[in-house]
Amino acid sequence: MKCRKLSFMIIFISVLLAVYLQPIFYPIKTEINSQSNTIKLKQPRSQQNAENIAADIYAQMIGQDINTIREKLPKELQNVDTGYGYTEYLFANQHQHFDILTNHNGKIQELTVFGNKGKVGNHFHLGMDLEDLISQAVISSSLSIKMQDKEYQFELSEEDMNYRPFISYNNQVYAICYFHPITGKLFAIRYLDAHYLLKVAPYQLIKGQYETYDNENQLANWEALSVQKANYFLTLFSRLDEKKYQIDDSESASVANEALAQFEQSPEKVLSTARILQLKEMRTQRTEPFFTFTTDEMKHLTDSLQLENVRGIFLAPSIDCMDVALQLQTNPILHNKLTNNQAKVLSIAFHKQDMLVLILDVG
What we know:
Elements: H1 2-25, E1 52-53, H2 66-72, E2 76-81, E3 86-92, E4 98-104, E5 107-114, E6 118-120, E7 124-126, H3 130-136, E8 142-147, E9 150-155, H4 158-163, E10 166-169, E11 174-179, E12 186-192, H5 194-200, E13 204-207, H6 222-241, E14 246-247, H7 255-265, H8 273-284, E15 291-292, H9 295-304, E16 310-316, H10 321-330, H11 332-339, E17 345-351, E18 354-360
Parallel strand pairs: 1-10, 14-17
Antiparallel strand pairs: 2-3, 3-4, 4-5, 5-12, 6-7, 8-9, 9-13, 10-11, 11-12, 15-16, 16-18, 17-18
């Protein structure tokens, strides 16, 4: 009897050891689902300091006279005044993509090339993946700029390295390369000088301060500019997203304008005191790259207007329409708000530095 009990205990303990030690000696192999909606790009090799490459034809356009360059480009589709000293021009390019020029005081400070395919400069083409880009240029996890005896340093996050890496050219021009969060393909390259880079603020600054938009046009008709910028933004976003978004032509078309106006008049109905202060500091001192509503704050705004089945995005500063459109494409959180259902009706409002997009959930 004792032998049976002893044998049973030995067998029982052996089974327990086998069960509990198996994961240690034989770890479970997991498989990654390749059908995920958002592609996790391979982490690129990063260098502390970016290597400058020879300026291509687009990098050489930065700083040039706007009228001279406009004459060389194909058909101009649309342009818009930002109200802050900058004018954006949209061109259809003969190489199956589009060009954006941003003009300030007669000089080009920014140029964006976007589309699904087409050669861009000497090294790149739209539709290439991150590995293709890395084979042509070294990308870095940080960017240092010295301008007017001041030093600035950007630090890129893992998300930035995957979706918005930058390239430095040998003529003090920088290019941000935008990769789509779903396809993983390059769909836009944005060329900028140092001043404009500090304004659009694509990355976190760890040294120095972002530049503010302080040259507001005091004589601007902001109501008219809001309509123009909304239509221009919709044109850009529809071409980027390849969906036929449209501004609702019913009574709800004015919903975003009404909501934004109400927020401007009574921000305390939407934001806490601390958040109102944060927004003011962002506008005057640019302590953060941009300000956006949380989900709860947006709900406060829509509830105050008794809106149902409406989601939205508030973003400031929203001076540069192309910058906003690219943020909505490559920021996973913002992009998801626009693409997680079949809604195609947008109500858009701009006022000075602020933008509100309401997504109307239609059946």
